[in-house]
Automatic annotation (TrEMBL):
Keyword Transferase: no
UniProt keyword list: Membrane, Transmembrane, Transmembrane helix
Pfam short name (any one): SUR7
Keyword set includes Cell inner membrane: no
Composition bias type Basic and acidic residues, residue spans: 212-222
Residue ranges, annotated region (Disordered): 193-222
Full protein name: Uncharacterized protein
Membrane-traversing stretches: 93-114, 121-145, 165-184
Record organism: Aspergillus mulundensis
Length: 222
């Protein structure tokens, strides 16, 4: 999750190899030969690696707008006159922050799971929240960039999804699901109702011990 979230912030490995969409934008005025979208910016491509400029949080996927290329020239018509791509890509950002917040909480409360079952249940609750928001993020990002890829390809502009970014997104969903199950299993292990049976055992133990003592006294009596 952190690798995808920070992709594009720095031009260093592995962050400069993680992106959502790469498009041949050589025929778009003012655009680099190849462009990559991340949550922070549009990055040019040099030697197969992203070269990103200044970062802008919650950077939208909206090619014709002033935030991207600021032109309609050679932009696929499906992007023009609609807010669909802008809104879908931007709404994914706050959900990812929420998912990271609950994920970090689950990580730290997981330390309590080593000592007590309530710690496991608290961690499971946090993990379920992280899972729900991560599913929302993964669905939004997948939908908007798959649609964008198809529109660019239909416009004879070669476009490819960032395999690493989407692999990390959906792998994190699977990992959170497993974490939820494991936390719940950890909380349920060894859970038994021993209240009444324990008291009964103690009472029986007291009289049994007293009876055994009387029998020993009889045996040693002259």
């Amino acid at each position: 999750m952190w690798l995808v979230f920070l992709a594009g912030v720095k031009n260093s490995n592995p962050l400069n190899n993680i992106y959502f969409l790469q498009v041949d934008t050589s025929n778009i005025p003012g655009a680099p030969a190849q462009s990559r979208w991340t949550w922070w910016n549009i990055c040019a491509v040099e030697n197969g690696r992203s070269q990103c400029g200044s970062s802008h949080p919650d950077y939208p996927f909206d090619p014709p707008s002033d935030r991207n290329f600021a032109t309609d020239v050679n932009i696929p018509p499906a992007f023009i006159g609609t807010n669909h791509y802008f809104l879908t890509s931007r709404f994914s950002w706050p959900f990812e922050i929420i998912a990271l917040f609950f994920g970090v909480l689950s990580l730290f409360t997981g330390l309590l799971a080593l000592c007590t079952r309530i710690g496991s249940y608290i961690s499971a609750f946090m993990a379920w929240l992280a899972l729900i928001f991560q599913i929302i993020v993964s669905c939004l990002i997948t939908a908007v960039f798959v649609q964008g890829r198809n529109k660019f390809n239909d416009n004879n502009q070669n476009a490819d999804l960032g395999v690493k970014a989407f692999a990390f997104l959906w792998t994190s969903v699977a990992c959170w699901f497993l974490a939820c199950l494991m936390y719940c299993m950890g909380g349920s292990v060894g859970r038994k109702d021993r209240g009444y049976s324990g008291r009964k055992q103690r009472r029986r133990g007291f009289f049994s011990a007293r009876h055994a003592s009387q029998e020993r006294n009889k045996e040693v009596a002259p």
